[in-house]
Design a protein that fits this description.
By secondary structure, the chain is α/β, with parallel strands linked by helices. Among the domains are: 92 residues, no CATH class; 139 residues, Leucine-rich repeat, LRR (right-handed beta-alpha superhelix). It has 17 helices and 17 strands. The chain has a 15-stranded mixed beta sheet that branches. Helix 1 crosses helix 2 and helix 12 runs parallel beside helix 13. It is globular, with a radius of gyration of 25 Å.
Length: 454
Amino acid sequence: MQELQFIENSTIYKLEPEAWYDVLLKIIIPYRTLMYPKPYTWPVILFLKYLNTSEIISCIKSWSGSLKHERPKFIRLVFMTLFKIFIENEVNLHIFEIEITVDYFDYYNDIFELILQNTTFIYNIKNLKLHIGDDSLRHRNISSDEHILIRNRILQIINSHQNFKEISFYYDYYPLYQSLLNDYNYSNTLKSIILYHVDFEGITNLTEIFEQLHVLESVHILDCISLNISFVQQIINLTKPFKLKSLLVDRLSQIEPLELLLRKSGDYLENFGFDFPNTNGKPLLLQQLLELTVKYCKNINYLYLSGIVSQITYLVLKLIENNQNLNYLFISTGFDSTKIECGSIILQNLGQILPSKLEYLNLFLAIEESDFEIFLKNSQDTFIRKLLFYSSISQNILPSIKEHIMKKKRTKYLATVIPSSEEALLFDECTDLMSLDDEVKEFGLYNIELLDES
């Protein structure tokens, strides 16, 4: 194994060969990639199954900081050398996620060049996933040369893999997105497209792009901008189904585009949510959105509902009741004067409409003790694997939790965050059960693990 060395300002920095064991132990092994028994030995890298480029860089930065070597040149060199080791040892990855962000453009040019010189590495990966963009992309002018270089490198990587299945676009850098979708034929491989915070304004060739994707199984639209008639009309014009699996909304100015979209694709929708901490005086639009979701979407598995106000509380309950495939549920009321009323209505009516089993339930409500008792009694036939309660008012609900959840073993994982007083809530001084050793032990007797979710 080689020595790692670079010179900066006349100072020589070295990482001796034996130190690479330390690199693997502190960077790779904690990084959820292995199923390998201790003690760890050098062949441990042969058991790598998952790599994410941005996560690896973050791990290297953290590790190098502990050595006081937190210099971009050193981090870049370690990153490059690690990939050389992966390639030389013929690591066979199940999943390789390439996240291209502004901060690490130079790093990616290094590994792209290395990978393209060793195409067997990329060809043997079972699932290649590409994520392009971050928030800072919107605030940086990328030169045409950089644009062309990034595009060409990506296309070469995809071509080398020959079985590219998933692509994600983050934030708005549409010229790059459009060129990638136009310049490569994914028609018989691409199965999933994820769009996060992408601005759809000015996009005009969606119909053409989606018509040629013959095996596309899912599209995910997450908190995107300009979800307008022009965009949706291109979806409506498709001669094939548009398999919209996720729709998360954090802004709402028009309801007609969403109505057209849900009418065409509501049957496919599995993940739905909105996040409106402040409804900005538009509860009517939110009400209309929920009415459309109730009407067109019956197969929802994941619901994230944040910013519920009194006008829509019963529609929220109806949406939950209509979707018996539901497995993940997050409910949070707004922080206006109706939060206690909303919390009360939800707790009094939620328990009896839940499915018999949930993987995850998170309630961020104003929890009154009497309403909480009603919820627990009405939901006594539901097992919830991971259960989280966050109360936005001070109430003693612990006795009810012990009586109806702990003793009946109705969950596997539990977290509660409760303010000791209204003043404590204002100053973010809340108590969670995980911080109380006696409670951890008591719940442990019932095989319930307390979590720190504060």
